[in-house]
Amino acid sequence: MRSRRMIFSYTTTLRWHGRRDWRSLPSELTEEIAGRLLRHDVSDYLRLRAACKAWRDCTDHPRNPLDSRFRPRRWILLSNPYHYAATCAPRCRFLSTTTGACLHVDLPELEGHQIEARTDVLLVLRHKASGAICLLNPLTTRPSPTRPPHRRSPCS
Asked: Do residues 136 and 109 touch, judged by C-beta distance below 8 A?
């Protein structure tokens, strides 16, 4: 009963000249919605964060590409990077296997890199000049440097 009253009283305070001010959602409610979206798919979570600064401020930033909460799930890479215009960054196309949604993602991080492999939609990139390897989450565009594999001596 208490939660019903709280929701009812909250919805009446949201009205402002016949409109709702969604920016003023309580942070606890925004965090709950964000958590549910994140359990479903990181792309929905990123859309929520992009909606307004107040919502961004009360949700976790996907800084760490190795944080499993922010890994794209049920997305597949449909195309190798391509340039849709001469002056634009490389673009990749991804498909959601659950909803059928298609995303075209501009990835300037691919400049100077070669995609070596894909895993869970994370891209394994090799820098063309230095050979350095990194992982890239294409939805959050957060790269993560990785350590080079331990090289064994041929005699060991």
From this structure: yes
Q: How large a percentage of the chain has pLDDT more than 90?
A: 14
pTM beyond 0.70: no
Structure tokens of 19?
Answer: 């409109």
Give the up-direction half-sphere exposure of residue 107: CA atoms within 13 A in the CB hemisphere.
30
Q: Which of 75, 30, 67 is nearest to 49 (CA)?
A: 30
Beta-carbon neighbour count of residue 46 at 10 Å? Answer: 17
* CA-based nearest residue to 139, from 105, 108, 91, 89: 105
Q: Which residues contact 123 (CB under 8 A, 6 or more apart)?
A: 77, 115, 117, 135, 136, 138
